[in-house]
């Protein structure tokens, strides 16, 4: 039997990596590509201040809420097949979003984009692990993959700023169409297929978690719009609690759960999911509010706003090499703790903005954030997939991405409430009041990072206990 030459295998895997990273980047940056255009979209399609957040939340909520279902679908029907279906739907939904004539249709198209991403993205990390089985290659591939996830939001802001300035905000969505077509052309030929597994979809679990998370975010958005005591706020929040509790009970009883609860037995993995929710919630919201601060308070154009993020984006990608150098030399949990503390310092620094702050003053804290966030995202991805059985790779990948997207949607919803509370006394807030609102948001986001630091401490302590335990077992075996 003839074997594929090593050089051909290398080229094949390079194309697989390109397709996976291209899809991941396209779908990650789509959460933020309209950020610099929000003022233009609001004026053109008639959004209110609070409803404007649904341009972001409709996408990330559908994306995050259905990721676990998408991961399970990949296990049951084959990951390449589900990946291609998601990419095709995303391409069509991007065309619809780019041509949307009304606010309602834009939000509906963004929701479809989220559904499509939920189908495609869980398969990307699982296919990456299948394609790069050797530990060294896998570590490098995951580091690049994580950097793309971490930098995707800031890349989206830059690209969106260019399109908004020179063409239209619509092109930030329409650009996905040719990229999607290229991915669809390459995927059947180069992506490996996985054998479909027998079983069924945990529909009740998928519905309860998706509707529960949607109700939570809807309730928070309504709280920002009409207050905490309104029925439109209280009922969705109460429903979210009931549905999420029901989700846990369903998963405990299900023979084939959408989320195998055994994945949470590891302190390292559970901590990675919680930490990711916290730091993505902080960073995603920072992009959303900082972009508006740069335009509404400092008077920057969409293009100039995008350029502000370029140094930070460069830091995200540079951290791939930092982690590759540091990982063999430094304890990964200790490195995670250091990176999160660094990010917390950057966010606390950024929270000192006011109406007189200059762009030059904003850049240094963004660079510090880029260093801390870039390292943390890579390590949290690694920890989230640590010691996962091959049969659980799809579910674990789904949990990593679910934590990412749900963190973004909940963080944005919560900090929209914070911003609204900070400026509530002024129905038409001026530059000084707006700057105070943005500063308050970044204060709370600093708290998110502080909580993530505590999570990293727990991971570090658990890792040291595990090391001591394994050392004791080895010594006992040697003595025996």
Automatic annotation (TrEMBL):
Membrane spanning stretches: 12-34, 54-71, 83-106, 112-130, 142-163, 169-191, 203-221, 233-252, 273-291, 303-323, 335-353, 359-381, 402-422, 442-463
Taxonomic path: Bacteria, Bacillati, Actinomycetota, Actinomycetes, Propionibacteriales
Protein name (record): MFS transporter
One MF term in the entry's GO annotations: transmembrane transporter activity
Species in which this protein is naturally found: Nocardioides luteus
Superkingdom of the organism of origin: Bacteria
Keywords assigned by UniProt, alphabetized: Cell membrane, Membrane, Transmembrane, Transmembrane helix, Transport
Subcellular locations according to the entry: Cell membrane
Stretches assigned to coiled coil: none
Major facilitator superfamily (MFS) profile domain segment(s): 16-464
One cellular-component annotation, GO: plasma membrane
Pfam families (UniProt xref): MFS_1 (PF07690)
Membrane topology: Multi-pass membrane protein
């Amino acid at each position: 039997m003839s074997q594929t030459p090593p050089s051909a295998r290398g080229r094949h895997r390079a194309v697989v990596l390109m397709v996976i990273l291209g899809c991941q980047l396209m779908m990650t940056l789509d959460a933020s590509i309209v950020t610099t255009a929000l003022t233009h979209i609001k004026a053109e399609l008639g959004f209110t201040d609070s409803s404007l957040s649904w341009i972001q939340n409709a996408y990330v909520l559908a994306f995050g809420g259905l990721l676990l279902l998408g991961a399970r679908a990949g296990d049951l029907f084959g990951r390449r097949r589900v990946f291609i279906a998601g990419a095709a739907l995303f391409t069509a939904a991007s065309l619809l979003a780019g041509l949307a004539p009304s606010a309602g249709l834009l939000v509906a198209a963004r929701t479809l984009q989220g559904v499509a991403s939920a189908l495609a993205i869980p398969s990307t990390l699982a296919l990456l692990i299948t394609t790069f089985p050797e530990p060294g290659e896998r570590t490098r591939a995951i580091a690049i993959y994580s950097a793309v996830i971490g930098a995707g939001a800031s890349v989206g802001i830059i690209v969106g700023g260019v399109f908004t300035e020179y063409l239209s905000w619509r092109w930030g969505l329409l650009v996905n169409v040719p990229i999607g077509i290229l991915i669809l052309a390459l995927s059947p030929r180069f992506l490996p297929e996985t054998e479909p597994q027998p079983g069924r979809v945990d529909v009740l679990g998928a519905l309860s978690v998706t509707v529960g998370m949607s109700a939570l975010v809807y309730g928070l958005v309504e709280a920002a719009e009409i207050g905490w005591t309104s029925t439109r706020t209280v009922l969705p929040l109460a429903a979210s609690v009931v549905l999420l509790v029901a989700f846990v009970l369903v998963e405990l009883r299900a023979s084939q759960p959408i989320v195998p609860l055994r994945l949470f037995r590891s302190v390292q993995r559970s901590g990675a999911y919680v930490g990711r929710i916290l730091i993505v919630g902080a960073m995603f919201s920072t992009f959303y509010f900082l972009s508006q601060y740069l335009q509404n308070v400092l008077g920057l154009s969409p293009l100039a706003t995008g350029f502000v993020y370029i140094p930070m984006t460069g830091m995200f990608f540079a951290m791939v090499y930092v982690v590759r150098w540091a990982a063999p030399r430094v304890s990964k949990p200790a490195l995670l703790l250091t990176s999160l503390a660094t990010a917390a310092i950057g966010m606390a620094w950024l929270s000192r903005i006011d109406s007189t702050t200059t762009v030059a003053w904003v850049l240094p804290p963004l660079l510090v954030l880029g260093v801390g966030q870039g390292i943390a995202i890579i390590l949290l991805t690694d920890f989230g997939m640590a010691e996962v059985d091959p049969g659980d790779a799809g579910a674990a990948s789904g949990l990593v991405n679910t934590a990412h997207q749900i963190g973004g949607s909940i963080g944005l919803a919560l900090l929209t409430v914070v911003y609204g509370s900070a400026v509530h006394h002024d129905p038409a807030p001026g530059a000084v009041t707006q700057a105070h609102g943005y500063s308050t948001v970044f204060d709370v986001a600093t708290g998110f990072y502080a909580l993530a630091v505590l999570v990293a401490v727990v991971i570090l302590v658990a890792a040291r206990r595990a090391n001591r335990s394994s050392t004791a077992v080895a010594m006992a075996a040697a003595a025996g």
